[in-house]
Amino acid sequence: MGTKKSRARAIALVAGAVLTAATLSGCTKTDTTAGGDLLQSLKDKGTVTVGFAGEAPYSFQQNGELSGATVALHREIFRNLGVETVDGVQTDFGALIPGLQAQRFDAVSAGMSILPERCEQAAFSEPEFMYTTALMVKQGNPLGLTDMQSIKDKGAKVAVMTGAIESDYAASLGIDATQVGSPQDGMDAVTSGRSDVFALTAISLNWLADHNPDAPVEVTESFVAEIDGKPQIGAGGTVFRTDNPDLLEAYNTELRKITSDKDKYLSIVGEFGFTEAELPDPELTTAKLCAGDI
């Protein structure tokens, strides 16, 4: 997320559970309409407001415009639902679900991992992306890091993004990780020597490295993390409040038209570096992910 050699940090400070958020639209409070009425309210307004954390290439601000693969999906889907405009509110990743619950936005656009504990707080769409983890290290990978276990085995100093799944991986493995607010902060931690490695989704790290070619870093091969010998199959989706079932159902109906058509899917998200590898497995449902049945 960002242009070449950009070092700008675009993460708004969050005080308490959720407070201030920078917005692209100037809106800081969405319509308080509850239940199934929200979809009709969005149609009437012609605008849906999404929360995003500035993690490219999922959702980010570029040249003053909201961009990214999840944003592209949302523009397609909401347009088909009769909602022409997608606006954004930027906040820290860890504040996205609290911000959604506080009605600061109508949905979360971040490719957020579908996890049982998150499903207790909010409603997820069916999977939109499959993903794997990778590591950003100094050029030459001096510690020879390859996965989360290697970080633990070598006592490496690792940075993870607050609220991201890699933070959970580190905690599960007993790794003392430094929390950072954005991908840029994670890369800065590596280049400054504060951390040996930054763990995040592979597609995000590759985008970050490609858009900062002068940074003395490299990205390892991606991997599926293992916790207690169990592969952590990752998939992300859009997040809604639990009291908006009609909106969720309508969204999923349109989403299936895209994820069931490889060419259509890639025509929407391909420009952001997504490939057929990120196309969701139709057998991997949100119900299974929320139940931890994977």
Automatic annotation (TrEMBL):
Domain of life from the UniProt record: Bacteria
Q: By its UniProt entry, which Pfam families does this protein fall under?
A: SBP_bac_3
> Does the entry feature the keyword Transport, yes or no?
no
Query: What molecular functions are annotated in GO for this chain?
Result: ectoine binding
Give residue ranges for domain Solute-binding protein family 3/N-terminal. Answer: 47-269
Q: Does the keyword DNA-binding apply?
A: no
What CDD domains is this protein classified in? Answer: PBP2_Ehub_like (cd01002)
The residue range of the signal peptide is 1-20
One GO biological process term is: ectoine transmembrane transport
Q: What keywords are assigned to this protein?
A: Signal
PANTHER family tied to this protein: ARGININE-BINDING EXTRACELLULAR PROTEIN ARTP, MEMBRANE-BOUND LYTIC MUREIN TRANSGLYCOSYLASE F
Q: What is this protein called?
A: Ectoine/hydroxyectoine ABC transporter substrate-binding protein EhuB
Which species? Nocardia speluncae
At the highest ranks, the source species' classification is: Bacteria, Bacillati, Actinomycetota, Actinomycetes, Mycobacteriales
Gene name per UniProt: ehuB
